[in-house]
Structure formats: structure tokens, C-alpha cells
Amino acid sequence: MKRWYCLIGFIVLTLGGGLLIGFLTAPGLWYAALAKPTFNPPNWLFAPVWSILYVLIAIAGWRTFERTDSAWPMRLWWLQLALNFLWSPVFFSAHAIGAALAIILLLLVAILIFVATIWRQDRVAAWLFVPYVAWVLFASALNAAIWHLN
């Protein structure tokens, strides 16, 4: 039973934290006025995509916490979460598009290192991060394009 409480904790932290940061740093008039590339998705798409990703990230974090002996994979998991949570305030609140691009590229590196590190110990946790990798690759290209256009 204790394991399930731990999973719920990971989900509340990850999904709750992500949704809270998204709410507090919601795109406003500044973002609406930016030039955006043709591949920019509609705004309504971001919340459901991130909600699903945050649940997958939480499950991977929980599995890593439960199944690994080394502290290194969990440190990487926490690093990617911190970078993830940092990106929105830097982009949407500070309006620092270039700094946000640097953060999202560091996030991508942290995610890839996490996947490579956890692969041997827990392939399910690694696979849970694959959609996250794909979305952050896309988000990085989008951030770079917005930076270039503005």
C-alpha cells in the first residue's frame, strides 16, 4: 500500500506542479503578439499534452525511485523536472526567449541522459520518457523558431 501512496505523491508533485506553473505563467498578450512559425500548434493543445506527459514523467520517477540502487538516476530525474518547471517562468513571465531556449536544450540533454542511464535498470521507465523526448524536441524547435522570428 505504501508503494501506491508514493506513486500518488509523484503524480501530485509532477502533474500538480506542472499545472500550477502553467496556470501562473499562462501565455498572455505578450505571447499572442509574437511572430510564430507555421508549425506552431493551437494553444488548446498544450495543456492536454503536458498533462499526459507529466503523468508519464511521474510514473517513470516513481519506478526509478522504487527500483534503482544508485542515486544518480533520481538526481537526473529531479534535474529534468527542475529544468522543466523553470522553462515556463523564463519564457512566459520573464519574456526571455533566448534564455528559455538554453533551458529547454539543457532539459533535452537531461532527459536523454536519464533515458540512457535508466535503460539497463528499468526499460519501462526509459520508454515512458520517449514521448517526452519527442515533445521536448518539438518544443525546442518551436522555441528556437520563435526566438529567430522575434
Automatic annotation (TrEMBL):
Keywords: Membrane, Transmembrane, Transmembrane helix
Main subcellular localisation: membrane
Pfam families listed in its UniProt record: TspO_MBR
KW Cytoplasm (keyword) present: no
Entry-linked CDD domains: TSPO_MBR
Superkingdom of this protein's organism: Bacteria
Family (UniProt): Belongs to the TspO/BZRP family.
PANTHER family according to UniProt: PERIPHERAL-TYPE BENZODIAZEPINE RECEPTOR, TRANSLOCATOR PROTEIN
Protein name, entry field: TspO and MBR related proteins
Organism: Aquamicrobium aerolatum DSM 21857
Higher taxonomy: Bacteria, Pseudomonadati, Pseudomonadota, Alphaproteobacteria, Hyphomicrobiales
